Each structure stands twice: as structure tokens, then as C-alpha cells.
Amino acid sequence: MMIKTFTRRAAAVFLAFAACAVPAVWAQDNASELGDGPVPLEEFRRLALQNNKQLMIARTRIKKAEYQNKEAFAAYLPAIDFAGGYLYNQKNISLLNSADYLQPIDQAYLAGVAAKYPHLGQTIQGLMQDPQTAPIVNEALGIANDLVGVTNNTLRKSTSFDIHNVFFGAITLTQPVFMGGKIVAMNKITHAARNAAIAMHDSEAENVIYAVDAAYWLVVSLKAKEKLATSFVNLLDSLSRNVNLMVREGVATRSDALSVEVKLNEAQVDLTKVQNGLVLSRMALAQVCGLPVDAQPRLADEDSEETVTVPEASDVVPADMQTVFDNRPDLRALTQGIEVARQEANVAKASMMPQLALVGAYQFSNPNMYNGFEKKFNGAFSVGAMLTVPLWHWGGNYNKYRAAKCDRIAMELQLQDAQELVTLQVRQASFKNKEADKTYRMTRTNLQKADENLRTATLAFKEGVATSDNVLEAQTAWLKAHSENIDAAIDVRLCRVYLSKVLGNLYNSQQ
């Protein structure tokens, strides 16, 4: 029986959405927003789009892509950096060798002079041996040695520098001039990545909306099935009372009464199952929308006399598939993926091209080199250009470029395959939509016939020209016709939503 089928569907939907619970605080806030009146489908959609965790993740990825786009744009601008440090050195710097200093005038020195200049050596020797001149010579040698010491100390101080503790730093400015198109390609990559993130968000939003609609209309259908099951129980209860009266009057058998009572018990069991399924389906709807499972909101369409109004199916199928391709968020994401692959190839190509940048720097240190290693901070500006020209890398950069081109070709083929599948999907959804319309109209015709059949069977039973079995058959046919009509009506609704989804019109954040 169709009521049992819908009960199983309600349980399946509840289990499918059981893992999508939202925090209790949010759930209570959302429940308070609904109020006590009937809630339309659009409000359930809004709550689901607001609270769905996958959509939150997708929105976070969009923000990430925006930040990456700003990061890539910053590469156009000059970069300013600071670097500093400290260095301890074991030894100082000396510009002169120890042999370069003046030698003291001693006996060894005089002996060397005598060996090199014999006449001068003999004269100095005579002066030093003469008692009258020896004191004067010795005094002069002492004064000369003092001057040598002073001169050596002066040289040592002026040519030796204390670099035990060195503090240094630099502020640099780098302005890219030509990077082989790498910066432009990176900006296009991040822009395409942002568009792809938006498209994936829209695709996930369509899935959420379709899930909400399925849960919503399942509640509506089970509410209608509950009314139908209640009416069926009332019909059987009335028939049971009439048959029991006929048994007491002797115009019906006990077997007739038992048959009706069995049918009545089955109908009551089915009513209980439908009521339980209705509770579960309400919980599933609340769960996917971020409401507490015990919220039990009243749906705007659950008390409607007409479950669905069928529009014309021919007005919703476009003739131009390119419009569908442009509207489908998943295809838009693939298109942006192709753009990313194309720009990645440009990035690989940039590694084979010259790169030019302007560099400016202010360098300082303590001790500084600008005033004899003075122990003060001092520095100077410098400006220049840096050119890098790749010469030979054994084909590594070129093979990287060719690999990136292969990625682009693969993405293009993937897009073509996806477009073919979407074309088939649209055709199937269109046929399914028309089939649902036809089925709904047939069930409406069967519904009228079943109502008339039940009316004539009931009237014949009262006139005594029909048995209870005839009435049971008419009631069962009436129940089946109404149940099939409800199923067909809901199927039309879901086919409309699915067709809108495959056409890419269900949700678009850029609209």
C-alpha cells in the first residue's frame, strides 16, 4: 500500500538528515523566528541556507579565495623588508702585518745596518766606543726607540678595528618590473578560484534547497495521507456498524462482519504508521532547517485542499542548452578550473623568461665602515636593478610548462563530458516532468471515478443489492485512487524543483 511506502520514505529522510544537526542555541533562535502561524516553503529554504554547515564551509572558502586574490594583487606593489642581526667575532681586524711595523734600534738592528752599509757601521761603532760621544749616541738611540714605539702604537690604533660585537641591519625595497607574466597569471588564478568557490557554494545551495523541498513536500503528503487514512477508518467503522446491525437482523453473516473488522484493524494500523511517519518527517524537516527536532512547525501547504497546482511543462524547458551550461554552477566551476589550468601554464612559462626588479636598500651597522669602524650606528642608501635570465635547466622548466598544458586539456575534456551529461540530464528531467503531469491528470480522472464508484456501491449496499465485499472493494479502490493522486501531486512538485535544479535556476547567489 502507498501509505506504507511513504512511511518508509519518511524514516529514510529522517535518518539521512540526522547527521546535519545545528547547535541548540541557533535552533532555538530559529524556532522563535517562525512564530505560531503556518510557515511557507520559502522560510524553510531561508533557514536551511542560513544554517547548513556545508554552505558555511563554502562561504568560508569564498572568503579564503578573496584573501588570496588580495595577496596576489600585492605582488604588483613594492615590497619593503627589514633584516637585522648581531655577530660576535673572536678576533679584531688588522690591516697591517706585524712585520710592517717599525723595528726598535738595538744591537741586532745596528749589526744589520753595519752589514748593509760598512762605512756607516764603522762610523756608528766609533761613535759608540768614543767616551765623549757614546752618551750622546745612546741618548739619541733611546729617543729614537721612543718615537718608534709611539709610531707603532699610532699605526696599530689606526689600522686595527674592534669587531668583537657587531650589530647590523638593512631596510630593502623591491619593485618587480617584469616577472615573465607570473604576477598577472597569479592574479587571474586567484580571481578564477574565487569564482569557482562561488559556483561550488551555489551548487551546494541547490542541493540544500532540493533536500528542503523533498522534506517539506513529504510532510505535506503524509499529512494528506493521514487525512485520507482517517477518512478510510471512518468509512470502515461506519460499514462495520451497519454490517453488525445486519448480522443481528439476520440479513448478513458473521463472516461478513469479521471481514470488515479485519479491514478496519488494518486501516487503523496503517493510520498509526502514517502518523508516526508524519512525526519523523517533521523532525527531518526541522533538522535540515536548523530547528529543534521537537519544533513541529505547521506548514503553509499541509492544510490546503489542493495539494498541488500543475503548471504547463512546456514553458520551463529552454531550447538553448548554452543557457543551461551558463546557469549550471557545477559547470561554471569547471570553466573556472580551466582558466586556473591555463594561467598555471603561464606561470610555468614565466620560469623560462627573464625577470627584472628594482632594488633599493638602506644598510647600517655598529661599528660602521663609513668612519674607520666607528662604534656608532651609521649607514647609507643603495639603489640598483636585478636581472635573472634562465639559460639552461636541461628542459625542466619547459617540461613543467607542457605538463600544465596537459592539465588544461584534461579540464577542457572534463567540461565537454560534463556538458554532455547535463544535456542528457535536462532531457531526462523534462521527460520525467511531462510524465508526472500526465500521471497527475490521470489520477485526477481516476479519483472522480473512484468517488462515484464508492457512492454507487454504498447506495447499492443500503438498498440491499450489493454485499459488504462490494463496498470494501469500492472503498479500497477509493483509498488507492486518493493515495495515488497525492503521490502524483507531490511527484509533480518534486519534478518541478528537480528540473529547475538541472537547469541551474534553483539558486544563484549572483542574481
What can you tell me about this protein's structure?
67% of the residues lie in helices and 10% in strands. It is of the alpha+beta class and 511 residues long. The protein has 2 domains: 2-82 and 178-502, Outer membrane efflux proteins (OEP) (Up-down Bundle), CATH 1.20.1600.10; 95-161. A 4-stranded antiparallel β-sheet has the order 1-4-5-6, with no helix packed on it. Strands 2-3 form a two-stranded antiparallel sheet. The radius of gyration is 48 Å and the shape is rod-shaped. The chain starts with a helix and ends in a 9-residue tail after the last helix.
Give structural attributes.
disordered N terminus, 511 residues, 13 helices, Outer membrane efflux proteins (OEP), alpha+beta, rod-shaped, 10% strand, 2 domains
Q: What is the oligomeric state here? A: single chain
Number of strands: 6
Question: What is the element string, with H for helices and E for strands?
Answer: HHHHEEHHHEEHHHHEEHH
What is the number of independent domains?
2
The level-1 CATH class of the largest domain: Mainly Alpha
| Rg result | 48 Å
CATH architecture of the largest domain: Up-down Bundle
Query: Taking strands numbered 1, 2, ... along the chain, how are they ordered across the largest sheet?
Result: 1-4-5-6
**At the third CATH level, what is the topology name of the largest domain?**
Outer membrane efflux proteins (OEP)
Could you give the distance between the termini?
44 Å
Unreliable runs, pLDDT <50, ≥5 residues?
1-27
Largest sheet: 4 strands, antiparallel
Which percent range fits the helix content? 55-70%
Provide the β-strand percentage band: 5-15%
CATH homologous superfamily label of the largest domain: Outer membrane efflux proteins (OEP)
Task: Please state the structural category.
Answer: alpha+beta
The coarse overall form would be rod-shaped
Mean pLDDT: 84
Task: Give me the number of helical elements.
Answer: 13
